[in-house]
Design goal:
Elements lengths: L1 H11 L4 H24 L2 H6 L3 H6 L2 H10 L1 E5 L4 E8 L11 E9 L2 E9 L14
Antiparallel strand pairs: 1-2, 2-3, 3-4
Length: 132
């Protein structure tokens, strides 16, 4: 009986798409700060944008929506897998951004990134590194 109760508890706490959108928005905002603000922003924009990291982080809801629209969810009841492909010229046509692929597991109210890859780095990364 204990296993059944645990299974019901896990299914009940399996995070849904809304929670994923919030998680992904935060992850994408931090990646954009690292990738765009630090490395890819053209000089004229660097001069015009006074605080790129704050500006990007303020867009976490928009970034979360973008991630949700580029993600497929497989719901297994006790957990879900989210497969996201995001980036490339469709995101910001005036910047060269790599295409990122992320596999995330959701269970027991939490998200854990299992695998990442990008056009810049064809080798998969593990969850020890923030992917986005």
């Amino acid at each position: 009986m204990g296993g059944g109760v645990t299974g019901v508890a896990l299914a009940f706490t399996n995070p849904g798409p809304e929670e994923f959108e919030s998680f992904a928005g935060d992850q994408l905002a931090e990646l954009a700060v690292e990738e765009v603000c630090a490395h890819r922003l053209p000089m004229p924009l660097k001069l015009a944008i006074q605080n790129c990291p704050d500006l990007v982080r303020s867009q976490h809801k928009v970034l979360g929506d973008l991630a949700r629209r580029n993600t497929r969810r497989q719901n297994f009841g006790l957990f879900s897998l989210y497969r996201t492909e995001i980036g490339g010229p469709s995101v910001l046509p005036f910047l060269e951004l790599p295409l990122y692929r992320v596999l995330t597991v959701a269970a027991a109210g939490h998200f854990r990134i299992l695998r990442t890859s990008s056009d810049n780095d064809p080798d998969s990364a593990t969850a020890d590194r923030a992917p986005w």
